[in-house]
Specification:
Elements (H helix, E strand, L loop, with lengths): L1 H19 L6 E3 L6 E3 H17 L4 E4 L3 E3 L5 E9 L1 H5 L6 E8 L2 E9 L4 E6 L4 E3 L2 E2 L13 E3 L12 H10 L4 E2 L4 H9 L5 E4 L4 H13 L3 E3 L13 E4 L4 H8 L7
Parallel strand pairs: 3-5, 11-12, 11-13
Antiparallel strand pairs: 1-2, 3-4, 5-6, 6-7, 7-8, 8-9, 9-10, 13-15, 14-15
Bound molecules: D-MYO-inositol-1-phosphate and calcium ion (2 copies).
């Protein structure tokens, strides 16, 4: 039942995205001049809430635009109604809905759906990860130097040691291909599918990563903070890899990798 509600909810959000995509909609900005929110983000969130509340009116909701809808349920739905809003607002079809379901503090279900390229990623804790119902696995790459990596950059620049541009600089100077899709949830799913060998980003929010993090782990990958501790979506920094390049990419991020 949880899974079918999750699918109904994510499809409801994706239908809203399709309705507005490349059409006319209101756009405003949040903190940071390019941190956008559109009419479609709010409408997608509303449709997702309705689908969840129809089946589970008492569940806790945490969603990017509405914030927390607090209840005393041990189930929490963590929702990004559009991940990749800047892409969406520019008519770039690299954006998705992301929903993770937490039970007693542990993410047990995750789904990420990009309706424009028809990719539906799903994972259930302990049961593996799928893309359009086919099992997926992380890549087998063993070295950062020969990896294809993806990252994202914050809307408000973070000036800190080993910050986003420092790490980017280290990788680019060595000729490592680093991509920037503009959707943290898709970045994670594309690591899970073996397209990227690793992803890192300074400062993601729980709604960006809750679903994708489970999808990577269930595809055989590893997700941690920048110290190598097990990942929690409630802390900011994320590194997600195929597992094999994890320690080396951590060293690059922390400025202690030989050769970088
Ligand atoms: C953003 C995307 C982007 C990441 C930003 C996020 P939004 O989410 O995931 O890839 O770099 O940090 O805020 O604003 O499009 O939902
Ligand atoms: Ca997001
Ligand atoms: Ca969003």
């Amino acid at each position: 039942m949880l899974k079918s509600t999750l699918i109904k909810a994510i499809e409801a959000g994706a239908d809203v995205m399709k309705h507005y995509f490349q059409g006319e909609f209101k756009i405003s900005n949040k903190e940071g001049v390019n941190n956008l929110v559109t009419e479609a983000d709010h409408a997608s969130e509303k449709a997702i809430f309705e689908a969840i509340k129809a089946d589970y009116p008492d569940h806790f909701l945490l969603s990017e635009e509405a914030g927390e809808i607090v209840t005393d349920s041990n189930f929490k739905w963590i929702i990004d109604p559009i991940d990749g809003t800047v892409n969406f607002a520019h008519g770039i079809p690299l954006c998705c809905v992301s929903i993770g379901v937490e039970q007693d503090g542990e993410i047990i279900l995750g789904a990420v759906y990009n309706p424009f390229i028809n990719e539906f990623f799903f994972a259930q804790k302990g049961f593996g990860a799928t893309l359009n119902d086919k099992k997926i696995q992380v890549s087998k790459e063993t070295a950062v130097l020969t990896s294809c990596v993806v990252t994202g950059f914050p809307y408000t620049y973070l000036d800190l040691p080993n910050g986003p541009l420092d790490v980017f600089d280290r990788l680019i100077r060595k000729g490592v291909p680093v991509r920037r899709l503009g959707s943290g949830a898709m970045d994670l799913c594309w690591v899970a599918a073996g397209r990227f060998d690793g992803f890192y980003e300074h400062k993601l929010q729980a709604w960006d990563s809750a679903a994708g993090f489970l999808i990577v782990e269930e595809a055989g990958g590893r997700v941690s903070d920048f110290k190598g501790n097990p990942y929690s979506p409630y802390q900011p920094h994320i590194i997600a890899t195929n597992g094999k390049i994890h320690e080396e990419l951590l060293d690059v991020i922390n400025g202690r990798a030989s050769g970088f």
